[in-house]
Amino acid sequence: MRILLIEDDAEAAAYMAKGLKEAGHTVDHAADGTNGLFLATTERYDVMVVDRMLPGLDGLSIIQSIRADGNATPVLILSALGKVDDRVRGLRAGGDDYLVKPYAFAELMARIDALGRRSTAAQPETRLKVEDLEIDLLARTVTRAGRAIDLQPREFRLLEYLMRHAGQVVTRTMLLENVWEYHFDPQTNLIDVHISRLRQKVDKDFERPLIHTVRGAGYSLRAPR
Amino acid sequence: MRPGDLFRATTFRLALNYLGLFTVSAIALIGLVSWSTSLFIEWRLQATVEADASGLSERYRESGLRGLADLIEERIRQEGEGPSVYLLVSPDGARIAGNLYGWPARHPNAEGWVRFRIERIGDRTTTVIAHAFYLSGGYRLLVGRTMDDVERVKLAINRALGWGLALTILLGIVGGYFASRQMVQRVEAMSRTARRIVGGDMTSRMHLSGARDEFDQLAQSFNEMMDEIQRLVESLRTVTDNIAHDLRTPLNRLRSRIDLALIGKAEGEAADYRRTLEETLAEADNLLATFNALLAISQAESGSRLNSFEALDPARLAEDVVELYEPLAEQNGVRLTARFDDWPGADAPTIAGDRHMLFQALANLVDNAVKYAPAGSVVTVSVAAGDRDGHAPGRVEIVVADNGPGVPEGARDRVLERFVRLDSTRTTPGNGLGLSLVNAVARLHGADLILEDNQPGLRVRLRFPPPTADLPSDEA
Fold first, then answer.
1. Res. B450: pLDDT tops 60
2. Same fold, A2-120 and A127-221
3. Domain with CATH 3.30.450 in chain B
4. What is the pLDDT of residue B59?
5. For a tag site, which of A70, A96, B14, B132 has the least CB within 10 Å?
6. Is the pLDDT at B364 greater than 60, yes or no?
């Protein structure tokens, strides 16, 4: 993917650019708001990563002005401001996701991947399929190898989110935010327990596991390698 | 105290102003009294003159001009150097009888009254008020009295009042000086105390005179403020100490882990390094989580109602938190259930709040309950209508109850403080911030946080204010 990184902290920018390049992305970096806006309006990117506090022009103004221009490129906002109000303001300005510093690199990668995917798959889907696992979003049914699997509503949403991001890494925080829709710090590995329950139903009786743990990052639903 | 300070003192200026005002009004009063007194005496003089004249006119009617002149001479003789003044002149102005040398130059007014000055023996001048009568044949009679009395009374009044005034001014200045010196001294004592506090002596307090006056009230408020500040500073110091202490432990672990990896094997295997790095990362994440929790607490404590407040369904929050923790509870052998009381009336109860923060608070409570309750116990999250005692209808309560080890009564306030962990819980993972955050979130929402004995176990009640009531925004 082609990624625009607008971040004034040189060290943080170098660290992100290195990691993103190693993951196979192309990265353009702007160290201030004015340059960032220039690149954002003149080039085409798959995802933009924008720091909120920038010299020249702040992150939210950049996002507002490209959105006013009709540019729908997904934007991930990075910020040291972690209050709920700040997050709401960031998303209202046109950001698609909000990540509070400090963050784990795996979290950043997973969110960029998720945003990049969002821009390619635009049309609504009614069925999702990975290997022999299939879910029907309208009938809200799950089958694997033709066998019906009975899921609780929340388990269904968890599986749906994993399927929509099949092949990508999704972090525990992403699951909490998107499946449970709460921003909070669980003190315990709650998500692990939920995933292990889901595995009991989706993977246990089958030869090839589909839900994989990615160490230090989260989970990924994909065909086994 | 320098003299300059005294003249700048508000009290002294105030005293001087009052003194000035008093002096002006006193002078005005003196003028009024002396004017009305002399008016009254003059009126009495005129009456005396009239009476005198009527006696003379009777004699004139009885025995003519001769008799009149005789009577006048007789009266003058009797009285000697008295206040009465008489003069009887012929048409050509020659004196026939009387103790006055000549007819006054001034003309009498329409009623016949005339006022003029005369010289008396011993160079004394005095004013005379007299009535002129015109007799037949061009003869004229003047009957009057000297106004010595009026002048004496006027003088006496003026002298008395003048002394009084001088005394007042003197007392005013002296009194103002002492009063303001006392004020200045008390204010100076206060500012000395304030400077001592600025200098670092936080225990310094203002002295109360015991008079219960405004100064005492001010000093009392100041002392109370200082007590509160001192309490806050101390609690802040405790928090800082605790933070330093509680963060030093994991940082030490972090450091020794890296240290060990470096000195353990000269040519360590890549896998060992990797494992060390992973452990180090996990440790760093724990530290960050602690910091995040601290930040969340101080955000909640910063006090003002957030823009993100909305009407929330407490039942939904309770359901969600139970749903989220239920697998974990099951894993620990704990039964976690949600219970909803019937709500009186048709409307479902709502609470005003931030859903993420409230969820975090509920999650912390449920997390604690599930973590500390032994296997086989029951944890209940319930939403109850109104007060348990029925005194406060319209209030919503979210209650998290367990039958685990509970919190001893004496420790219930303490566990709400940052980093406080009961000795019995030292071995379980945790940072001692969970209940502090619950407390901060509760306060942000104007809710009461009540820890109770569940016999056995702990029951935590979050009692929210009525949904329609606006939350106080100035309460920390």
1. yes
2. no
3. 3-159
4. 85
5. A70
6. yes
- Of the candidate ranges B94-98, B275-279, B387-391, the one whose mean pLDDT is the lowest: B387-391
Tell me the backbone φ, ψ of residue B225, rounded to 5 degrees.
-60, -45
Reported as a single tens digit per residue, the pLDDT across B100-109 is 878 888 888 8
- Cβ within 8 Å of residue B301, ≥6 positions away: B440, B443, B444, B476
CATH domain A127-221 topology: Arc Repressor Mutant, subunit A (1.10.10)
Q: Write down the pLDDT at residue A199.
A: 93
Q: How many helices (H) and strands (E) does chain A have?
A: 8, 12
Instruction: Please report residues of B whose CB lies closer than 8 A to that of A102.
Output: 288
Mean pLDDT, chain B, rounded, equals 82
- What are the residue ranges of CATH 1.10.287.130 in chain B? 214-300
Domain with CATH 3.30.565.10 in chain B: 303-463
The two structure tokens encoding residue B243: 């933070």
Closest CA relative to residue B29, chosen from B157, B175, B176: B157
- Sequence letter at residue B22: F
0.85 surpassed by complex ipTM: no
Range with lowest mean pLDDT among A101-115, B177-191, B461-475? B461-475
Strand arrangement of the beta sheet that strand B458-463 belongs to:
B335-340, B378-385, B396-401, B458-463, B448-453
Nearest CA in chain B to A153: B323
Distance from CA of B306 to the nearest CA of A (A): 7
When scoring A173, A175, A183, A184 by the number of chain B Cβ atoms within 10 A, the one with the most, hence best to mutate, is A184
* CATH superfamily name and code, A2-120: Response regulator (3.40.50.2300)
Residue B465 and residue A166: Cα distance in Å, rounded?
A: 45
Instruction: Report the alpha-carbon distance of residue B317 to residue A166 in Å, rounded.
Output: 30
Give the fold, CATH level 3, of B303-463.
Answer: Heat Shock Protein 90 (3.30.565)
Which of B297, B308, B366, B437 is best to mutate for the A interface (most A CBs within 10 A)? Answer: B308
Chain A CB within 8 Å of residue B277 CB = no
B3's enclosing H/E stretch is helix B3-8
Q: Output the CATH code of domain B214-300.
A: 1.10.287.130
Hey, are the CB atoms on B306 and A186 less than 8 Å from each other? no
Adjacent-strand bridge partners of B338: B381
Q: What is the pTM of this model?
A: 0.64
Would you list the domain boundaries of chain A?
A: 2-120, 127-221
Q: For the domain with range B3-159, which CATH number is right: 1.20.1050, 3.30.70, 3.30.450, 3.40.1130? A: 3.30.450
Could you give the CA distance from residue A164 to residue A176 in angstroms, rounded to a whole number? 15
pLDDT digits (tens, 9 = 90+) for A7-56: 998 888 998 899 899 988 999 999 999 999 999 999 999 999 999 888 88
- CA-nearest of B336, B337, B341 to B373 is B336
Q: What are A99's two structure tokens?
A: 């990540």
Q: Which residues of B touch A187 (CB under 8 A)?
A: 289, 363-364, 367, 429-430, 434
Per-residue pLDDT tens over the stretch A137-182: 888 999 999 899 999 999 999 999 999 898 889 999 899 988 988 8
Specify the residue for token string 């909305």: B310
What is the pairing mode between strands A147-149 and A97-100?
A: unpaired
**Are the C-beta atoms of residues B112 and B132 closer than 8 Å to each other?**
yes
Q: What is the pLDDT of residues B199-252, one digit of tens each?
A: 888 888 888 888 888 888 989 999 999 988 888 888 788 878 877 877 787 788
